[in-house]
Amino acid sequence: MIHRLAVIGVGLIGGSLARALREAGQVEEIVGCGRGRENLEKAVALGVIDRYSHQVAEAVAGADMVFVGVPLGAMKGVFEAMRGHLAEGAVVTDGGSAKASVVRDAAEAFGGVPPNFVPGHPIAGTEKNGVEASFASLYRDRRVILTPLPETDPEAVARVRAMWEACGAEVTEMSVEHHDEVLAATSHLPHMLAFGLVDALARMKENDEIFRYAAGGFRDFTRIASSNPVMWRDICIANADALSRMLATFAEEMKDLAETIARRDGDHLLEIFERAKAARDRYVDGV
Amino acid sequence: MIHRLAVIGVGLIGGSLARALREAGQVEEIVGCGRGRENLEKAVALGVIDRYSHQVAEAVAGADMVFVGVPLGAMKGVFEAMRGHLAEGAVVTDGGSAKASVVRDAAEAFGGVPPNFVPGHPIAGTEKNGVEASFASLYRDRRVILTPLPETDPEAVARVRAMWEACGAEVTEMSVEHHDEVLAATSHLPHMLAFGLVDALARMKENDEIFRYAAGGFRDFTRIASSNPVMWRDICIANADALSRMLATFAEEMKDLAETIARRDGDHLLEIFERAKAARDRYVDGV
Questions:
Q1: B202, A248: Cβ pair inside 8 Å?
Q2: Which residues on chain B are in Cβ contact (under 8 Å) with A228?
Q3: Chain centroid, CA A44 distance in Å
Q4: Residues of chain B neighbouring A280 (CB-CB closer than 8 A)
Q5: By three-state DSSP, how is residue B84 classified?
Q6: Which residues of B215-225 are buried (b: 16+ CB within 10 A; e: fewer)?
Q7: H or E element: which one contains A243?
Q8: Is the model's pLDDT at B287 over the cut of 50?
C-alpha cells in the first residue's frame, strides 16, 4: 500500500498510473505536480489526483512513492527540484522511454544515482496526451521494464515492482544499455519511420490528394506519427546513439531493397516478405 | 443490375465484391473461378458464389460483368484465357493494386487494350486472405479508383462505376501513371517499410526478446507486414519504377534523419515531427 503518491507530470502515463492504483485500492493519497494549472484542475475534477502543487519540492514532501512522468528533457530539472525534499525512505521511479539519459540526469542532479531511485519504463501508451487521455487499464497485461543499477536498493525495486503489478502489468528487469537497444528497435525506429513517411508525403506536391487515397493500412501504419513531437524530440536526443545507428543501418537496407525492386528480383523479394510475415505472425499476433 | 457476374479469383477482394453486390440485390448470378477447389467449395457453402469453374473461359461464358481479382503476376494469364470467350457486350474490370502493368498485360493478351476493359483498384483490404476473410461492407465508404484509357468505352466505365457505388464505395478516375505514383506513396512504400522493419528485427540476435517488448504502436505499425508475400512481390515488380524511386528517396531521407539525431539537432527534429503530426491529424484522422 502506498500512503502518499506524488505524480510529477499528470499526463497519459502518470494519470493512468494514478487511476490504476486508485482502482486497485493501493494508494491512500495522490498529489499531482505540473506547470499547467488547467490540466491539474482537470485531474482533480476527474478524481485522478487529490490535490496538486506547481512546486516539485512541495509535491514530494511526505510522499513514500514518487513517480516522474515528464518528457525526458524535463527529467533533470525535476530531479534537481526534489533534491533534499524527499521523505525518509521515499522511493523514486520514472516512466522515461530511454534509460541511460535518465540515469545520467539523476546522477548529475543528486550527485550520484541514489539507491532509492529505480529507473523504469512502462511499455504502454497511445498517441494521445494529457490527463483526459489517461485510463486505469492502460497497463493491464503490458510490460514494465525496470533497469536497476548495482547500487539500487533491492527493497526499492521490490516496491516499484509491486506498484506496477498492482496495475496489472508484467514487470521485468534488464540493464540500462539493453533496454535502450531493445526500445530503439521496437519503438523509436518505428516512430522515426512513421514521422518520416508522413513528413515526406506532406512535402509532396498535391499532398492533400495523396492523403485522400490513404487506406486503412496507412492509417494504422502512421498512427504513431500523431504522437507528441516534443516527447519524441527528447527521446531521440536521449537515445541518440542507439537510435541513429539503427536508423542508419535500416536506411541502408531500404536502399538495398529499392535496388532489389528496381532489378525486379522476385525471388529475393518473396524471401524478405515471407520471413517478415512469419516473424510478425509468430511473435506479434502470437503474444 | 448485373445478370451474371464472373469473379476470377474468389479471395478477400473478389469475395467481398460478390457479397456486397449480393447484399445490395444488384446481381442475379455469380460464377467463381480459381485454381483451388477447397476455396471455391467454401465460397459456394458461404453463399458468396452460386457455382464455379476452374476454367476462365467457362467461367466468363455468358457473363455481362467480369471481375479479375487475382495477384498481379497472374493477370496476363487470366486475360489470355478469356480472350475469345467473352459474351457480346461484356465488361471486364480488375482490382489490381498497380495499373500500368495490368494495362500492359491486357494489351499483350488481347492485342491492344479492349474498349470494354476498365482498369480499376478498390482502395480497401485487410492483411487477411481467402474467401473466408471476405465481407460485404469491405468497400463501404472506401475509394475505388478507375483508370480508363482514351480508348475505353464510357458506357463500360459507367457500368463499373455503378457496380462499385452499389457496394457503397466512392469512385474516382485518374490516369494510370498518376494512380501508380499515388499508390506507391500511400500503400506500396509503407508496406516496404513494415516488411523491412520486421525482417530487420527478425534477423537481430535475441529477436524473440525484441518482439516481446513490442507494444501497441509496433503492432499497428507492422500489421501490414502480415500481408500476402506473393501479392506484394507482384506489386513490387508491377510498380517497380515508381516504387523503387520513392523507396530510394525515402532511404536517403532516413539517412539524413539518422545524422540529425546523431548530432542531437532538437530544433530540426521538432520541426519534422510537428509537420508530420499536423499532416496526419489533418488529413488522415480528419477523413
A1: no
A2: 277
A3: 23
A4: 198, 222, 225-226
A5: coil
A6: bbbbebbbbbb
A7: helix A240-262
A8: no
DSSP state of B124: -
CA distance B135 to B145: 20
Measured between beta carbons, the chain B residues lying within 8 angstroms of A232 are 269, 273
Q: Which residues of A touch B219 (CB under 8 A)?
A: 284
B226, closest residue in chain A (CA to CA): A277
SS3 at position A3: strand
**What's the whole-number mean pLDDT along residues A41-51?**
98
* CATH number corresponding to B178-284: 1.10.3660.10
Give backbone dihedrals phi and psi of B169, rounded to 5 degrees, phi first: -90, 160
Return the C-alpha cell found at A132.
483526459
Checking if the pLDDT of A196 tops 60, the result is yes
Query: What topology is assigned to B2-174 in CATH?
Result: Rossmann fold (3.40.50)
CB atoms within 10 A of CB A228: 20
**pTM for this predicted structure:** 0.82
In the beta sheet, which residues pair with residue B205? none
Say if the Cβ atoms of B232 and A269 lie within 8 Å: yes
Min Cα distance A23 → chain B (Å) is: 23
Domain residue limits, chain A: 2-174, 178-284
Q: Are B158 and B186 in contact (CB under 8 A)?
A: no
Q: What is the mean pLDDT of residues A70-98?
A: 96
